[in-house]
């Protein structure tokens, strides 16, 4: 079986060494770049299964590298940064980052996020039925089951759930969800989102006050766990 290849773009030698040891010991092939230019060239010449991308690069901001990569690269990109400000996280996710991990990070958690992202890479986005724990979402029939029992959703509720399901495990920002479900002109109408998230939780969660499926990323957006 071919081992998944990960490209690490980070200018800190200690971080690259830590990541190489952790990733190789878990069966991944690791390639490294210490600046944006080399990272972009390496990604273009030999696209990896996943990119770990630092925001604070010496030549070009990781945000700009992310934007360039998303012009053609469709697989997972996990941002690494010492910055934990809400605006940095939202900016990265809005530009197409799969996930955002702040430094210093726990190696076990990062590896879990990498596994999740690569697993999503392997799943065909065109799959008609998505199974997520006790939920079954049929994108063609536009139907939902919870523990085998049909759940009736409105058209908008289903559209919102479908976007979350196609990106399960990934944080989706408020703006992204609003654009996908209600259109570009509704990206500031966060009250729409709160109302329909609340409605979905009532129908899909065993305890809507302590949601296990649709979780809130404070100030950023929502994630279908």
In short:
This protein has 225 residues and is an alpha/beta fold.
Helices, strands, pairings?
Blueprint: E1 5-9, H1 13-25, E2 29-33, H2 36-45, E3 50-54, H3 62-69, E4 76-81, H4 86-94, E5 99-102, H5 107-122, E6 129-132, E7 135-138, E8 143-146, E9 149-151, H6 155-166, E10 171-173, H7 174-182, H8 190-204, E11 214-217, E12 221-224
Parallel strand pairs: 1-2, 1-3, 3-4, 4-5
Antiparallel strand pairs: 6-7, 7-8, 8-9, 10-12, 11-12
The third-level CATH topology of the largest domain is Rossmann fold
SSE order: EHEHEHEHEHEEEEHEHHEE
The pLDDT mean sits at 88
Radius of gyration: 18 Å
Structural class: alpha/beta
Strand arrangement across the biggest beta sheet: 2-1-3-4-5
Q: Quaternary state, please?
A: single chain
Overall geometry comes to globular
CATH top level of the largest domain is Alpha Beta
Spans of at least 5 consecutive residues whose pLDDT stays below 50 are none
How would you sum up the major sheet?
A: 5 strands, parallel
Helix segment tally = 8
């Amino acid at each position: 079986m071919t081992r998944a290849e990960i490209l690490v773009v980070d200018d800190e030698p200690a971080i690259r060494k830590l990541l190489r040891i952790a990733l190789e010991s878990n069966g991944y092939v690791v390639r490294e770049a210490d600046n944006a230019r080399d990272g972009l060239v390496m990604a273009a010449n030999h696209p990896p299964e996943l990119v770990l991308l630092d925001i604070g690069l010496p030549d070009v901001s990781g945000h700009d590298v992310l934007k360039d990569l998303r012009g053609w690269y469709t697989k997972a990109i996990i941002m690494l940064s010492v910055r934990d400000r809400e605006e940095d996280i939202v900016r990265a996710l809005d530009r197409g980052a799969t996930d955002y991990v702040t430094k210093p990070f726990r190696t076990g958690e990062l590896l879990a996020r990498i596994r999740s992202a690569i697993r999503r890479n392997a799943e065909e986005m065109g799959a008609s039925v998505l199974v997520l724990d006790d939920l079954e979402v049929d994108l063609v029939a536009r139907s939902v089951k919870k523990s085998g029992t049909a759940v009736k959703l409105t058209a908008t509720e289903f559209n919102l759930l479908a976007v979350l399901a196609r990106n399960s495990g990934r944080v989706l920002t408020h703006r992204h969800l609003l654009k996908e479900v209600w259109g570009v002109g509704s990206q500031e109408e966060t009250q729409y989102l709160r109302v329909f998230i609340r409605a979905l939780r009532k129908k899909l969660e065993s305890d809507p006050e302590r949601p296990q499926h649709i979780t809130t990323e404070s100030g950023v957006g929502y994630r279908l766990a």
